[in-house]
What we know:
Layout: H1 2-18, E1 25-34, H2 41-51, E2 61-67, E3 70-73, E4 79-81, E5 83-87, E6 92-96, E7 106-110, E8 114-122
Parallel strand pairs: 1-2
Antiparallel strand pairs: 1-8, 3-4, 3-7, 5-6
Helix pairs in contact: 1-2
The site of zinc ion has 8 residues, from loops.
Amino acid sequence: MHELSIVTGxxxxxxxxxxxxxxxxxxxxxxxxxxxxxxxPDQMRFVYEALTExxxxxxxxxxxxxxxxxxxxxxxxxxxxxxxxxxxxxHYVMPIFSCPECGGSVRITGGRDCYLREVRVxx
Length: 123
Ligand SMILES: [Zn+2]
């Protein structure tokens, strides 16, 4: 499960950030995740809850912010958000990896990252 390795990485990063600090508890962890990571926030929260049990992060809230993918066109220079095509029959969203302006090939410049944005603690 993709979510498991991502959440493990988030927890490691938080523990690294709070070690050697005199804190009582972690209250909230805010992460930003690119939509092209195709992660399920529900699954992430589920995994987070399980993995933080009996750690300093136990009981903290995991807030997930999804950032839009960004593309830049190699042909016309268009830069912006990726276009998605939604299949109403299957409720499946498919990103389109071509330029909305000229149909040229694009480079993905954002939406595949995972950042730890904020850690709220009680001291
Ligand atoms: Zn273009």
